[in-house]
Amino acid sequence: MVDINTKIQESQRATATSASVTATAAQPGAPMSAGLKAIDRDFIEEATLNKARKLGVSYINVSKTPINPDLLKLLKPETAQKGMIMPFFSVGKRLRVAVADPANPETKKIIANLKADKYLINVNLASTEGLTDAFKLYKTDQYKLKREVETKYAEKEVKEYEQELANLAALGKKLDDVTAQDGVQMINLGALKTGASDIHYEPEEQAVRVRFRIDGVLHKVFEISHGAYKNLVNQIKYLSKMKLNINNVAQDGRYSFVANERKIDVRVSDIPTHFGESFVMRLLDSEKSLLQYEDMGFSGSYLQKMKDIETLSHGMVLCTGPTGSGKTTTLYSILGNLNNEETKIITLEDPVEYNLAGVAQSQINEKRGYGFADGLRAVLRQDPDVVMIGEIRDLDTAQTASQASLTGHVVLSTLHTNSAVETIPRLINMGLPPFMVAPSLHTIIAQRLVRRICDNCKKMSPIPESKMKELTEALERINRVRPNLKLVLPKELPETVGCEKCSHTGYSGRISIAEILRMDFEIRDLILKEASSNDILLAIRKKGFLSLREDGMIKVVQGHTTLEEVYRVTNISI
Ligand SMILES: [Zn+2]
Question: Cβ distance 174 to 202 under 8 Å?
Answer without folding.
Answer: no
